[in-house]
Write a structure and sequence with these properties.
Blueprint (H helix, E strand, L loop, with lengths): L1 H23 L2 E6 L1 E5 L8 E11 L2 E5 L4 E6 L6 E2 L4 E5 L2 H44 L4 H40 L2 E3 L4 E6 L6 E2 L14 E6 L4 E8 L11 E6 L2 E18 L4 E8 L11 E7 L7 H9 L4 E7 L3 E4 L2 E8 L2 E6 L1 E6 L2 E6 L6 E4 L9 E2 L1 E2 L3
Parallel strand pairs: 1-25
Antiparallel strand pairs: 1-23, 2-17, 3-12, 3-16, 4-11, 5-7, 5-10, 6-9, 7-8, 9-11, 12-15, 13-14, 13-16, 14-15, 17-22, 18-19, 19-20, 20-24, 21-22
Helix pairs in contact: 2-3
Length: 397
Amino acid sequence: MLVALAVAGAAVYPTARAYLAERRAPEVEIAHATHVVVTAGGSTDLPVLVATGYVVARHSSDVGVKTGGRLARLKFEEGTRVRKGEVIAEIEHADIDAQLEASRRAVAEAEAQLAQAVAAREEDVRNLERQRALAKDGITTDAALTGAGSAAAVSTARVKTAEAAIASARARVRVTEEAVENTSVRAPFNGVVIKKRAEVGETVSPFGVAGQASREGGAIATIADLAELEVQTEVSENSVAKLTPAMPAEVKLQAYQDQVYRGRLRQIFPSADRAKAIVEVRVTILNADAHVKPEMTASVTFQEPHRADAGRGAASAVAQVPPVPVVLVPKRAVTEQNGQSHVWVVTGGSAVRRPVTLGADRLDQIEVRSGVMRGDAVILNPPAGLADRALVRVKGT
């Protein structure tokens, strides 16, 4: 009986020991190495940076009035398309129209006075010529000749005064016409009214009125050119170096997560915000549609730029190069020891340490150029003291 128990115990012992060892093994979290294919002569389309921001129109304007008054007419609503120079609103201007009529009549009156002055001057000039002719024959006196000359000079001065009066009256007409023009609000460029800020009957002013936000400054509408939309976003100072001019990007709207839009980095602002340690960046949306609206929340994923190939011969040669896979692992899987990078790969229930050669960062991932293959199970945040080929338990199994 004892012999039988001893034999049974000897048979069960290895299994029990393995079971206990497995249960005592540290529990680890794993992720599988992935890869993308670099197309010949193109881009990996791998993300290098993600930022969030808002959709804005590259050309947008709060259109205001040039002169104060009561709005008599509005020719727009939200969504109305307007053309450059088109009148979109008018201010009451009956009083200015009356001033314009008075100015035009003043011109007519000045012209009539000029005609009279010219006629009088011509008569005085003829009289002077007669007196000079009589003086040669000794028929007239010096006093009569002098009087005729003075009268001609006075008439000439009156003509010049009348001409100046006409010029002044015409200038007043132009000023009044400009005042009438200023009562019309015109669109500064082709675009769409995205916000209506006033109604007919309201009193408006170039400097704003009581109850109106000071930043609006008398604006009656906001017009935007929806043909050129972009994302206004902010990037940390530490990440700006990853961006390059005209860098390709993907844009996603929070409202339409399934729709991806093509983008291109248009501008990195020349000044940073030292309080926030950020730099403003603008990304043009290349294929915006009706879903894209100003002030929508958007995320931008900056990608590797496409490599330019010079000449058809170079393009043909590159086209013959087979696609190159790029292996990616989470950054949390990489450890360093004595200046060498390693990852721990789970193989047959054991953790195997492998030296790796790393490449570029990809957000929370990193390229592995050697040491790891696609599909390898790598340990995330390897526990301290983990020994090579030690048993491990995978979470969730």
